[in-house]
Amino acid sequence: MEIRRFDARSATDDELRQLHRITVANQAITRPNEPAPTFDQYVGRLLHPVPGFGKPTRWVAVADDRIVAWTTMFSPEAENPHLTIVEQLVVESSARRRGIGTQLLRTFLPELIAEGRTTIEFWAVTAGGSGESWAHHHGFRATHAVQVQELGTRQVDPARWEVEPPPGYRLVSWRGRCPDDLVESFAVARTAIKDAPLGASEFHFAEWTVARVRAAEAELAEAGIENRVCVAVAHGTVVALTMVELHPHRRDWAYQNDTAVLAEHRGHGLGRCIKAAMTRSLVAELPELRSVRTQTSTSNVHMIATNHALGYTDVRIQIVLTHDVRALARTLGGQRA
Ligand SMILES: CC(C)(COP(=O)(O)OP(=O)(O)OC[C@H]1O[C@@H](n2cnc3c(N)ncnc32)[C@H](O)[C@@H]1OP(=O)(O)O)[C@@H](O)C(=O)NCCC(=O)NCCS
């Protein structure tokens, strides 16, 4: 078996089809109630990785000229120079329990050590599945649990999205670039996402500044991702925000990203109000839209309840698993699988 780096941008059509096949087969096990991505949607996702985490690094395991396993990971900078996030590591169903997943780990860990990464986290592991058992076998600890939720925009009564702003607040929306007169308070409000529970994950949220807001907007624009924002303003200052990404390869789908309300403005229904306004505009302006996805900590009862009030339903629980890179490398050095 050969394990090598993989770049989706220079991959052959055949290689991409192999990855798609493995992914669809895996999702049939781990996400049986969710529609599998089409080949085009899947390739679109590979070519438009999640923004804000740096460039992805991918590896594949190849046996008899066929990809049997692959992984995608991100090594973010700024607040997270210690961390590598494994978005996905999948072994083809028929090739499992032969040590291939373990061999992939063993192969890329030395690079993480050389880059100075001290912590590795698997994100997006379906609770109760093979990934959780495998990671525990290797000494990973479960550090966080995330509720994935979805809004079926054609199934929900739009009356749920008719929410007036509380007295004293007005709503402002934009696409792409934050208006100059709001950008300073917008950066402060974005930093309020730090209050969102992260369990014992070793990921650190960003300290937003105007320069970082502008850099993030530019990164999204360069990736062809439309950034839609709705904020609540009081006395000329942003006090609450919600952000949605529209990815170019999926016009039927939107990703509901951060929502945050400054601590002193909580408890007035602002979160529900701005998310409702965002949903109204998405539904009115995007005729192809069918669903909006979001995720939040399982302990974030207020956000989960707000989403339920807007018509979101619970899809699945994902867990985060964390390990020390050097300790893991030492353990794997002495193990067969
Ligand atoms: C998790 C996964 C990557 C494991 O790959 P793999 O190549 O089958 O794993 P290995 O053969 O290296 O397993 C090593 C050991 O882990 C444990 N393990 C692996 N899968 C397990 C399972 N389903 N249940 C219980 N223990 C398991 C076993 O102790 C195994 O050793 P053994 O087979 O000698 O008993 C694979 O099952 C998979 O692709 N799952 C779906 C995607 C996923 O959840 N990825 C997780 C990280 S994002």
UniProtKB/TrEMBL annotation:
Superkingdom of origin organism: Bacteria
Pfam families xrefs: Acetyltransf_1 (PF00583)
Keyword Acyltransferase set for record: yes
Residues in N-acetyltransferase domain copies: 1-167
InterPro entries: Acyl_CoA_acyltransferase (IPR016181), Bact_Acetyltransf (IPR050832), GNAT_dom (IPR000182)
Keyword Flavoprotein: no
UniProt GO molecular function: acyltransferase activity, transferring groups other than amino-acyl groups
Keywords assigned by UniProt, alphabetized: Acyltransferase, Transferase
SUPFAM superfamilies with a match to the protein in the record: Acyl-CoA N-acyltransferases (Nat)
Entries under PANTHER family matching the protein: AMINOALKYLPHOSPHONATE N-ACETYLTRANSFERASE-RELATED-RELATED
Full protein name: Acetyltransferase (GNAT) family protein
UniProt source species: Labedaea rhizosphaerae
